[in-house]
Amino acid sequence: MAAAPLSRKHLRVQAVAAVAENGAAVQAAEGQARPIFPFTAVIGQEEMKLALILNVIDPKIGGVMIMGDRGTGKTTTIRALADLLPQVPVVAKDPFNSDPFDAELMSEEVRQRLKAGEELPVGSMKIPMVDLPLGATEDRVCGTIDIEKALTEGVKAFEPGLLAKANRGILYVDEVNLLDDHLVDVLLDSAASGWNTVEREGISISHPARFILVGSGNPEEGELRPQLLDRFGMHAQIGTVKDPELRVQIVTERSTFDENPAEFHKKYAEKQGALTQRIVEARTRLKTVAIPYEFRVKISAICSELNVDGIRGDIVSNRAAKALASFEGRDEVAVEDIYRVIPLCLRHRLRKDPMADIDNGDRVRQVFKQIFAME
């Protein structure tokens, strides 16, 4: 007799238990319903992969915008990142993923419980990755207040939205350049304040909404609003692979995965586990990484030379360089770290020059070499 199929709840419990032993095992438990291509199996697109990893190491970098031709693996790579995300401590049964040890990342309800002397129940969860569909309503994104319950029972009945689920995690918007303006405004407000406020009929509820904003899109389908583009800490630009042998390798790997996802995941389980461990160690080491004062001065000199508006470019470049040094297992930033990350941090902040015959990333590298006196 065939065994009865496992329920979704049972599968979820199995997956959570497995991740404690090996991050790659989660995919094996959940992969039957929705197989995800392994991150370490993605061929090429190193710039995009580096930007995603650095944002997981230091969420305060501010997210990443990935622009490129259709069919270049943008969505595949971003979704593959979910399998590498480490565990974080949370207040048990809290709908906002509150951090039990950081007041800035607690909901107001959890703060009140802590102030009252209650011992908070602590659990753990994988850093969440939440998709924001293009057709989502504002209520679905922000959450809704049950007005009837609030008026009849005098309690604030709140149904959390996508921003609540994405708190302390990743919010992914595919084709972000096609997102409706009203949703762009919601994202701008939350990204600027780190909080989401819902107001209905004189009732107001706020909750933390600090997330890594990851967007992807095709530049041929429209430009992104400058206000939203500036909110992305990094900007990765990818193109179609031209090398015929590399294209054949990509097609072969994808075909093998489609034929038997479970076996394909076993093949990359060790690499997946090793990369997850590197990310966990880098997140821990990050606080000890230093960047020499002279390097910080030169980063700001590059931003000034390129006429970058504001200071956000300086801040993100410093953070990204430290995250890369931590990922490489070092306690001090090297010149090479800055060279690798600064085009990602500044290319989308340069003013457009229709007469320019050079890519923005190459412009950043040129100025970098001048400031750092590199050949």
Automatic annotation (TrEMBL):
Ligase as a keyword? yes
InterPro entries to which the protein is assigned, alphabetical: AAA+_ATPase, CHLI-like, ChlI/MoxR_AAA_lid, Mg_chelatase_ATPase-isu, Mg_chelatse_chII-like_cat_dom, P-loop_NTPase
The reactions it catalyses are:
protoporphyrin IX + Mg(2+) + ATP + H2O = Mg-protoporphyrin IX + ADP + phosphate + 3 H(+)
**Record carries keyword Ligase:** yes
Please provide the record's keywords in A-Z order. ATP-binding, Chlorophyll biosynthesis, Chloroplast, Ligase, Nucleotide-binding, Photosynthesis, Plastid
Name the principal localization, coarsely classed: plastid
Residues forming the AAA+ ATPase domain are 60-242
Pathway linked to the protein: Porphyrin-containing compound metabolism; chlorophyll biosynthesis
Q: Which cellular compartments is it found in? A: Plastid, Chloroplast
The EC number on file is 6.6.1.1
The regulatory note on its activity is: Redox regulation; active in reducing conditions, inactive in oxidizing conditions.
UniProt cross-references to SMART domains, sorted A to Z: AAA
The family classification in the record reads: Belongs to the Mg-chelatase subunits D/I family.
- How does this chain assemble? The magnesium chelatase complex is a heterotrimer consisting of subunits CHLI, CHLD and CHLH.
Job of this protein: Involved in chlorophyll biosynthesis. Catalyzes the insertion of magnesium ion into protoporphyrin IX to yield Mg-protoporphyrin IX.
The protein's name in its UniProt record:
Mg-protoporphyrin IX chelatase
